[in-house]
Amino acid sequence: MQRRLLGRTNRYTYPLWVRGLLQASDRSAYQQAESLFTRLVESPYEVLDITPAPALWGQMLRQYPNRLQVALFAPVSLLRVEHYSLALYSVQAHLIEALCAIGREQVDYYFLDLSEPLSESVLTAALEALELARQERQIGALGFKARTDPMRVLSVWKTHDAFELLYLPENTELRAVLIPEARARRVGIVLEHPPIEEPPAEAALQQTGADALLIPIR
């Protein structure tokens, strides 16, 4: 498959991103991660979502030569704070922790979670922290994730145009409301998708309107 442009990020990537998941097994988490990582390095995949285990995947990224780009999703709990200063600190701390884990100066794709209602001061603080990180090249591209309440998310999005990427789970209502807005804003669209191989992936990209599909790999 050809690499695709991710909206206004001006970045081209292979359109299947992978999320590294570990499962109950006789093998240790390290052994599972090592085996998966070896497969990734030898595959056409270019973007690894380290969110399920940042420390473990960070160890793999530091230990083995690779050209993988890193995606990271902020937990929904990150902005469950009441004050501007706490929101600022929470985002900065989360990003610094991730950079230390992967041993790099930049997280390529960082997604803020807008699934829960946020006060204006908390959201403003988070976006200010992320904009500063982007200016300092600690973040390559900034996106957001949503899981519920598409009309509320759309309202927030219309007043905060900082996002270059959109990530959505398998939710028909969310996708019906937010994908057209993403297209109008030239925002890159990344969609959750079950495991899929190259030939049918092309059809899935066309059908969903996605620029990339994020699939689990075990």
Outline the structure in words.
This protein has 218 residues and is of the alpha/beta class. It has helices at 29-41, 54-63, 84-102, 120-135, 150-159, 172-185, 198-208; strands at 4-5, 12-13, 16-20, 47-49, 69-73, 107-113, 139-145, 165-168, 188-192, 212-217. The protein is built from 7 helices and 10 strands. The longest helix is centred in the middle third of the chain and has 19 residues, at 84-102.
Key terms:
21% strand; 7 helices; globular; 10 strands; single chain; alpha/beta; 43% helix; 218 residues; 8-stranded parallel β-barrel
Question: Topology of this protein?
Answer:
Elements: E1 4-5, E2 12-13, E3 16-20, H1 29-41, E4 47-49, H2 54-63, E5 69-73, H3 84-102, E6 107-113, H4 120-135, E7 139-145, H5 150-159, E8 165-168, H6 172-185, E9 188-192, H7 198-208, E10 212-217
Parallel strand pairs: 3-4, 3-10, 4-5, 5-6, 6-7, 7-8, 8-9, 9-10
Antiparallel strand pairs: 1-2
Instruction: Tell me the span between the first and last alpha carbons.
Output: 22 Å
The total strand number stands at 10
Uncertain ranges: none
Mean pLDDT, to the nearest integer, reads: 94
Could you describe the largest sheet, including whether it forms a barrel? 8 strands, parallel, barrel
**Strands in their spatial order, largest beta sheet:** 3-4-5-6-7-8-9-10
**Could you say which overall geometry the principal axes of the C-alpha atoms support?**
globular
Q: State the secondary-structure class.
A: alpha/beta
Helical residue percent band? 40-55%
Radius of gyration in whole Å, from Cα?
A: 17 Å
Strand content: 15-25%
* Number of continuous helical runs: 7
Order of helices and strands: EEEHEHEHEHEHEHEHE
